[in-house]
Structure formats: C-alpha cells, structure tokens
Design goal:
The chain has 189 residues and is α/β, with parallel strands linked by helices. The chain has five helices and six strands. Helix 2 runs antiparallel to helix 3. 22% of the residues are buried.
C-alpha cells in the first residue's frame, strides 16, 4: 500500500513544484513564505522505488470464514443413526472429537477437515434451550492432536437437515443436556 501511495504521490509532487516554479510570482501571492524558496534552484531527492511485477510476491492475508449453524449432539444408538450406529460416514468408529455435518456444509468442510467451535449460545425459539456453554466445549474430550474445542468432520446427517452440526457424545443424557444451540463454526488453524 505504501508502494502504491509513493508511486502515485511522486508525480503529483513533481507536477506541483514545476507549476509553482513557472508561476512563482503568482504563487508568492498565495504562499509568500514558500514562494521565495521556489525561485531558487529546486533539488528533489526521490527515493528509489521497487516495483513488484509478480503478484505472488505480495503477502496475502488469510481470511477465516465462519458459519453460524444450528448445533445438536448425537449418540451411537440406532434411533439416532442408520443401521451401523458405531461407524461414521467415513468408515471410522464414533468417538469423542467427531462431528457430523449437514450435507450442505460438507462443501465448506469436507470429510477429514478439522473444525473449531468459536462460540456457542442459545438459539432463539429452541424448545429445550441450549445446555452447552463455551466451558462445555473446552472440557469435552477430543481426538489426539486436536486442541480443546476442535473436532474432525467424519459423519453426515440426514438429507433433510441443513446448516447444522451434530457433536458426537458418548451418553444419551449428555446429548439431551446439550440441547439445541447456535454455534459459530470455522476451520481450525
């Protein structure tokens, strides 16, 4: 950005000084203190400017994209899953640190992606409310190599579900206590 400003400002300054030299008597009317200096020899020191010709050399900041999703929790029981309740859509066993996403969210977070819940709160109009808190997220066991609040996308939800994440928990009562929440979900760094 500084390079761009320098490249644009140098020709403007040179044009102004050149104009002021040519019009010095008139210039003195408006700027008497400066006009006397301009009639003499003007020496400009222009710093060398490096022009970057290859855009790949410029640093590009990473942008973190986060999604506000409905969040529930599920267990490995046949009433909540398909005929193989302990096996995820990717073929691995269910365990702490696994989440299921609605199919529309798999485009943003494909299987195997590590995601992080950045925020959790009660969802407006949810009948049972949200029993989970940011501290709940931090205390949940997770997969080896992941930080608290990070999960791996390994399962999917019924096609009727949209904009939703389902956190796997080992007990039915934990899932019920989780309730229906609203979370902010992003890729983990």
């Amino acid at each position: 950005m500084l390079l761009l400003k320098t490249v644009i400002l140098i020709p403007l300054v040179l044009s102004f000084v050149s104009f002021a030299i040519q019009m010095s008597p008139r210039f003195e009317l408006f700027f008497p203190d400066i006009g006397a200096h301009i009639r003499g020899t003007v020496q400009l020191s222009i710093p060398e400017v490096e022009v970057v010709r290859n855009a790949t050399e410029l640093p590009v900041p990473e942008v973190q994209v986060a999604y506000v999703l409905r969040s529930t929790a599920y267990n490995s029981v046949s009433g909540q899953t398909d005929s193989t309740p302990n096996i995820t859509a990717t073929g691995e066993r269910t365990q702490h640190g696994i989440v299921a996403l609605s199919r529309d969210m798999l485009e943003m977070f494909p299987y195997g992606t590590t995601v992080k819940i950045l925020d959790i709160r009660s969802m407006d109009g949810a009948p049972n409310g949200c029993g989970a808190t940011p501290k709940t997220i931090e205390r949940l066991p997770t997969l080896p190599g992941l930080s608290p609040g990070e999960f791996r996308v390994a399962d999917t939800m019924h096609p009727r579900k949209q904009r939703q994440v389902d956190v796997w928990l080992d007990r039915v009562e934990y899932a019920r206590n989780w309730g229906v929440c609203e979370v902010v979900l992003a890729k983990a760094n």
